[in-house]
Amino acid sequence: MTTGHIMNTVRGQMILDHVFPVVEIFSSIQGEGFLIGQPCDFIRLAGCNMNPSCSYCDTKYAQGEVSGTDMPVRDIIKQLTRKPVVVTGGEPCRFQRLDWLVEALIHHGHVVTIETNGTLFRPEVMWHTNVLSISPKLPNAGHMPNMPVLRAWRDAWVPPTVFQLKFVISDSTDIDVAVQTLDELLCACSLQFECGLEVVFQPEGSGDILDRMRWLTVAIADRAFFNRFERVYILPQLHKLLWGNERGV
Predict the structure, then answer these.
(1) Which of 96, 99, 136, 187 counts the most CB atoms within 10 A of its CB?
(2) Domain, as residue range, for 129
(3) 44 in a structural domain
(4) Structure pTM?
(5) Is the residue at 148 inside a domain?
(6) What CA–CA distance (Å, rounded) separates 27 from 203?
């Protein structure tokens, strides 16, 4: 059965009828990570499990469970205009049937990135998504990485899904914790996982972003630990450079 017909089955109709609380759907560019600058559509789901919220959260309007409008998957897909799609939040992995949304997007020809904070584990998502982007929370966010969940994601990883770890850095303490997190994840991983891992560092987006980029570039370059990785990126939040904290861009 071709993917074009899968959604015509009874199960496919259940998927298309399934409802998610959507805060907003909009077109922009990917502002973070190794796909930075890529034109894409964003689906922002409502609700976040981080309590208290991260100190530098810039989407507090999406934190509440009632902040979104219930939309069936079929209507979500109708609003999309671009092939690359980013499912973000809030925290998308709050939803038990997140894999249904991803599966439907894939079957309709989209390339899907899931953005998650790495505190909830949905292994079934790994079977469908193209890019899993995990942003472990560091001390200056008011939290610490959830290592059991991060290890579970690592162990569930299967190629060709791209596994991205994205660290938001405020100071050297955050770098120390990021190094510790990476070291723990890599101590029992496959060579295939280590070689395929995308590691991204970005400065926390308040203040003079370019000045913070200069500091972070030097700080990372001085750490020999990062020489073991094939792909390490030091990147700004491009959307903040372009639009600040404006919503929906």
Answers:
(1) 136
(2) 3-242
(3) yes
(4) 0.93
(5) yes
(6) 24
**172 DSSP assignment:** H
Element (H, E) at 19: strand 19-29
Give me 14's structure tokens: 């259940």
pLDDT greater than 60 at residue 3: no
pLDDT tens digits, 23-53: 999 999 999 999 999 999 999 999 999 877 8
Which secondary structure element, helix H or strand E, spans residue 22, and what is its range? strand 19-29
Residue 201 lies in a domain: yes
Question: Residue 21: how many CA atoms within 13 Å on its side-chain side?
Answer: 18
Angle at 86 between CA 82 and CA 88, to 5 degrees: 145
In 3-state terms, what secondary structure has residue 114?
strand
- Amino acid identity, position 24: E
Q: What is the pLDDT of residues 119-164, one digit of tens each?
A: 999 999 988 899 999 999 999 999 999 999 999 999 999 888 999 9
Helix, strand, coil % over all residues of the chain, rounded to 5? 40, 20, 40
φ, ψ at 198 (rounded to 5°): -100, 120
Domain count, the chain: 1
